[in-house]
TrEMBL record:
Gene3D superfamilies: Periplasmic binding protein-like II. This is Transporter substrate-binding domain-containing protein. It holds the Pfam family SBP_bac_3. Keywords: Signal. The keyword Lipid biosynthesis does not apply. Residues 1-19 form the signal peptide. PANTHER family: AMINO-ACID-BINDING PROTEIN YXEM-RELATED, MEMBRANE-BOUND LYTIC MUREIN TRANSGLYCOSYLASE F. The lineage of its organism: Bacteria, Pseudomonadati, Pseudomonadota, Gammaproteobacteria, Pseudomonadales. It comes from Pseudomonas fluorescens. The keyword NADP does not apply.
Length: 257
């Protein structure tokens, strides 16, 4: 009889757990009417902080679209590539956006949305030096000065593959002027950023943007184990792509090669 009673209690607890799926960021965002978004504001064409304090870019527009689908307003949470994961794990935001690369290291402690596309690493150099820096072997030399923003996957690539080169860290806003001024030789970055910056900074050239040195995907960062929130974001992304909303936003910032 005691064993039967125990089984009944366990069944009751299990039924209650199934009936109450628990708190999700989806429910919280809808209830409070605010979506908190972490972004670095220094990675065009995905995220940029303007002089007037407003954010702009592909992922900024997408985050605004997500908030609109939830009848919510956005609270932007500034972060850096070095502090992105600590800020996110401290639950400072519901989602992080801004050209975030999918990585196994980040996947250990967070979820990713469905990928937004492939965007691998390539060199960005002065146009006069394109032929000099075609490969990892050509760049991984003691005399080559590599410059990267701190804390992101660009720095990880440089540390992993370019250990013989001189690696210097710099902010991701004026880093392109350092290249143009001849204070550095190569920046390893994603093909999308390289393509964008060569249009903004005449004299800089993306090296073989169609032949990336490393496979990479872009996605939005989400809290781990929150399946309801991830499912909503993934479905919203799917519909954004299927209806052409995402392509329309991308086309405003990044011309198709």
């Amino acid at each position: 009889m005691k064993a039967l009673l125990a089984l009944c209690v366990l069944a009751s607890v299990a039924t209650t757990a199934l009936a109450d799926p628990g708190s999700s960021r989806l429910d919280e965002v809808i209830q409070r009417g605010t979506l908190t978004v972490c972004t670095t504001g220094d990675y065009m064409p995905y995220t940029s902080l303007r002089a007037d304090g407003r954010y702009q870019g592909i992922d900024i527009a997408m985050a605004e679209s997500l908030a609109k689908s939830l009848n919510a307003t956005i609270t932007w949470v500034p972060t850096t590539w070095k502090t992105l994961m600590p800020d996110f794990l401290a639950q400072r935001c519901d989602i992080a956006v801004g050209g975030i690369s999918v990585s196994l290291e980040r996947q250990k402690t967070a979820f990713f949305s469905q990928p937004l596309g492939v965007d691998g690493k390539i060199p960005l150099v002065r146009c006069a030096d394109v032929q000099r820096y075609q490969s990892v072997e050509q760049i991984n030399q003691p005399q080559v000065r590599v410059i990267e923003p701190a804390g992101g996957t660009n720095e990880v690539f440089a540390r992993t593959h370019l250990g013989q080169a001189q690696i210097r860290l710099h902010d991701n806003v004026s880093i392109f002027d350092e290249l143009l001024a001849g204070k550095a030789d190569v920046m390893i970055t994603d093909a999308s950023e390289a393509r964008y910056q060569q249009k903004q900074k005449p004299g800089l050239c993306a090296v073989n943007p169609e032949r990336q040195m490393q496979y990479s995907q872009k996605a939005f960062l989400l809290p781990r184990d929150d399946v309801a929130w991830k499912s909503y974001v993934d479905q919203w992304l799917h519909l954004s792509v299927a209806t052409g909303v995402y392509h329309g936003i991308v086309s405003q910032w990044l011309a198709t090669p």
